[in-house]
Amino acid sequence: MTTDVSPLLMQRIRQDVQSMHGYAIQESAGMVKLDAMENPHRLPPELQKALGERLGALALNRYPDGRVNDLRHALAQYAGMPAGYDIMLGNGSDELISLLSLACDVPGASALAPLPGFVMYAMSAQLQGLAFHGVPLTADFELDEAAMLAAIAVHQPSIVYLAYPNNPTGNLWNDETIEKIVLAQGAQGGLVVMDEAYQPFASRSYMDRIERHTHVLLMRTLSKFGLAGVRLGYMIGPKALVAEVDKVRPPYNISVLDYECALFALEHADVFAAQAKDLREQRTRLQLELAALPGVTPFPSEANMILARVPDAAKTFEGLKARKVLIKNVSKMHPLLANCLRLTVGTAEENTLLLAALKESL
């Protein structure tokens, strides 16, 4: 029996989709997993037991109910959402990005973001039929102010994405430059999305400035908070703006298991705050020890990852993999990332294993 898809049937699938590459997830069984910016800490046993009992009591035979609004209110309070603003939930930030592309899909629409950056900005735009314009960062991974302002003037994008901190570079960009970009995008009637996926590890947030502009949405996720397996993102913005985007959200997009896990986590936010503090301290340790290795240049980070340039990224990546340490080789993602590896900050033990394997692999 053949499993080949007929050429006639393939004609029904968009040509641009056929030419795309899917989002690659590395096989990680048996590895020290430091490739996906996950929080390496699990819940303490007593909280695992309490959460298990709570989830076991849920009515899984029913669709999600008004309890999801309890989570919206809890997240709004946790994030410090201003009055007159609203919050929208997504199946991870990925779904929110896709819904933004769907809501803004008017003739001639486009999205714009600095590069290198989060790959889903471009992928979601292209899948929805929006043009995507990438603007290279400077050699030290700062925003190229002149190039960004020129691109906004020429392309007049519907959406400008600014990751704060940025993935994969890990840095927080200059606030004055960000403000100029926000003003320029607002002046031509476009939307700005501040993506704060790594907020638990950053020293600054745009939340204290969000009320200055009615065209700015702020997006966060609980993935880096410590719930990557739960898949829950949220977006905050002026009520009228969020209401329009919310119209394209699928009904019941957040499962009862997801929102109950998230509510439980927020009730124990101090546990996750302690985990984030530990990871920030481990990040400092990694920065210092990486800088001491010959030929290794770590870049400043305000996320739970560190971008580091090595003499030979492919050789070092394979050496780490052979020693059962999995990181991300980003050296082919963009010319600015030549010979760069992205290292997730792990536990103290995982970081010790990473450093030992790295010394042997260089």
Structural features:
362 residues, alpha/beta, Aspartate Aminotransferase, domain 1, Aspartate Aminotransferase, domain 2, 2 domains, 7-stranded mixed β-sheet, 4-stranded antiparallel β-sheet, 14 helices, 13 strands
Layout of helices and strands:
Layout: H1 7-10, H2 15-18, E1 32-33, H3 45-56, H4 67-79, E2 85-90, H5 92-103, E3 110-115, H6 119-128, E4 131-136, H7 145-155, E5 159-163, H8 175-187, E6 191-195, E7 216-221, H9 223-227, E8 233-238, H10 239-246, H11 256-267, H12 269-291, E9 297-298, E10 305-309, H13 313-322, E11 325-326, E12 328-329, E13 340-344, H14 348-361
Parallel strand pairs: 1-11, 3-4, 3-5, 5-6, 6-7
Antiparallel strand pairs: 2-8, 7-8, 9-10, 10-13, 12-13
Q: What would you say this structure looks like, in words?
A:
- The protein has 362 residues and is of the alpha/beta class.
- It has two domains: 7-45 and 270-361, Aspartate Aminotransferase, domain 1, CATH 3.90.1150; 59-268, Type I PLP-dependent aspartate aminotransferase-like (Major domain) (Aspartate Aminotransferase, domain 2, 3-Layer(aba) Sandwich).
- Helix content is 42%, strand content 16%.
- The protein has helices at 7-10, 15-18, 45-56, 67-79, 92-103, 119-128, 145-155, 175-187, 223-227, 239-246, 256-267, 269-291, 313-322, 348-361, and strands at 32-33, 85-90, 110-115, 131-136, 159-163, 191-195, 216-221, 233-238, 297-298, 305-309, 325-326, 328-329, 340-344.
- Strands 2-8-7-6-5-3-4 form a seven-stranded mixed sheet. Strands 9-10-13-12 form a four-stranded antiparallel sheet.
- Strand 9 (297-298) and strand 10 (305-309) form a beta hairpin.
- The longest helix has 23 residues, at 269-291.
